[in-house]
Amino acid sequence: MWKVTPSKSLVIKINLVFLSCFLVIYATLLLRSSTSMYHQNASAYVRCNSLRDCHHKVESGYKMKAVLLEDGVELKENGGRKMVKRERPSFLNGSGFVGRGLKMGMVNMAGEDLSDWNVVGKIIPVTFQKVSELFEWKDLFPEWIDEEEEMHGTLCPEIPMPDYKKYEYLDMIVVKIPCKFPEEGWRRDVFRLQLHLIAANLAVRRGRRSWNRRPKVVVLSKCRPMVEIFRCDDMVVHDGDWWYYEPDMKRLEQKVYLPVGTCNLALPLWEKGIDKVYDVNKIQKPNPRTKSTKRQAYATVLHSSENYVCGAIMLAQSLLKTDTKHDLLLLIDTSISAAKRSALAAAGWTIRIIERIRNPRAENNTYNEYNYSKFRLWQLTDYDKIVFIDSDIIVLRNLDLIFNFPQMSAVGNDNSIFNSGIMVIEPSNCTFKHFMRQTDEIVSYNGGDQGFLNEVFVYWHRLPRRVNFLKNFWSNTTVESSMKNQLFGADPPKLYAIHYLGLKPWLCYRDYDCNWDIGDQRVYASDVAHRTWWKVHDTIDESLQSHCKLTEKRKIELKWDRMQAKKIGFSDEHWRINVTDPRRRG
């Protein structure tokens, strides 16, 4: 007994030592493997498109973690998937509507029972890396970018896409897109966008085309697919949760070849460091054997009052001074008198009468009660493309270049939204009807058309801020004021257009910007921009200038504002300036 006991004890101790060593080695390998895999694969989830190295924002908690399970798929206990059996859409049920013998690329269709589809053609699964759930909309649509690379250039994330070269040419792309409605912000879901872009890119890059056919796209979703990518004009059939499209491939090509999101400019209007105008031949590819019959026009809208007639006259005259060859269209309602219509026509506008559209969420007799009238622009279907410009804008350089860009192209405003003061749109009765069906559902963040349109067109393309330069000074710094006023007063102009936010120049005395006299309007005040507007005003015919007079009511308001500014004692002392504007007495 005395000899046996130590040997058993020794064996136990040896086994414990081996077990401890094994656990330490196993834990070390496991941790090392996980760390290595993260660093190898993180860039696949969010990549950066820049000459500089992409930095992964791990220190700020922005970890590139991918969630690869498909939405709505149940996992069985044995690890298998529960297949969802759906009725095949009617347009695939032997009517000859779509055809047979098709090659069909299936995107995000895991968990769907597709056995019935074999009679239609060959099923080709498309594999891709799902975008990280930590990848937010604001990463693709930032509030501000360094457009002119004055600081560090632009670091932009990219959405993972399939390796298109792996796939043969396809007749049809079928994609399942989850719908998070009615969750707040459901339209701005990056995974939803990724699936739309994969389907669009497959149609463009691997879609089989010939003179009499084009690729087909079928979407399975409870929500309507994004009208910014798959236009309602291209929809052939809507059958329950199935949406069948035959896209206009030229339009779709233009969409997919532009930068994704607004982290990059859709169009650099100048080369870095200089003011040379962008070479339009880089984006135009005319066919010498055909003559373009596309019709394009600038347009603006006046309704409910004559307060902006002077602004619309100035807009038309400033456009004509840039030697544009495009039509100028003005949509007005019956509130504009015959005399004012004559002046607007003399300024250069072709006038069309419209019926106003009421904003159902607006209060009676408020400024935004009828601002949905702007939707009438989409009914100008005798034109292929419209560049809308607000009537509180003057144009200083030729803007015809932006007709080459698709709907919706615009300048950034704040957060992830665009400013609707200048925007490229594509008229469509189908889109107009879509707007009208959504007016009760969509809540506009600002109660106006800009908020509404930003909920319809969440995917848009960023034009340079110089295209629609907003007259504001949000940061209220000397550096900001100096930079912006230098641009406002540049001769020859460096800006393409100035957007006069706040009180309008024709509602102020010529002598200074009257936004200085009102506390909450001072962020819009610039005497330099004010002088630029009046400089253009003085070049137009005197008969047109007469429509920029001050009403007696407005003179009283200006006098009151100056008195209040003096009482408050604003340190800039604009209220001390001697008013010489002849309109004060005229």
TrEMBL record:
InterPro entries: Glyco_trans_8, GNT1/Glycosyltrans_8, Nucleotide-diphossugar_trans. The chain crosses the membrane at residues 12-31. The keyword Phosphoprotein does not apply. It is an enzyme of class 2 (transferase). Gene3D superfamilies: Spore Coat Polysaccharide Biosynthesis Protein SpsA, Chain A (3.90.550.10). GO terms for cellular component: Golgi membrane. It is found in: Golgi apparatus membrane. GO terms for biological process: cell wall organization. GO terms for molecular function: glycosyltransferase activity; metal ion binding. It is a single-pass type II membrane protein. The keyword Glycosyltransferase applies. It comes from the Eukaryota. Its EC number is 2.4.1.-. Its main location: Golgi. Belongs to the glycosyltransferase 8 family. Glycogenin subfamily. This is Hexosyltransferase. It comes from Centaurea solstitialis. The lineage of its organism: Eukaryota, Viridiplantae, Streptophyta, Embryophyta, Tracheophyta.
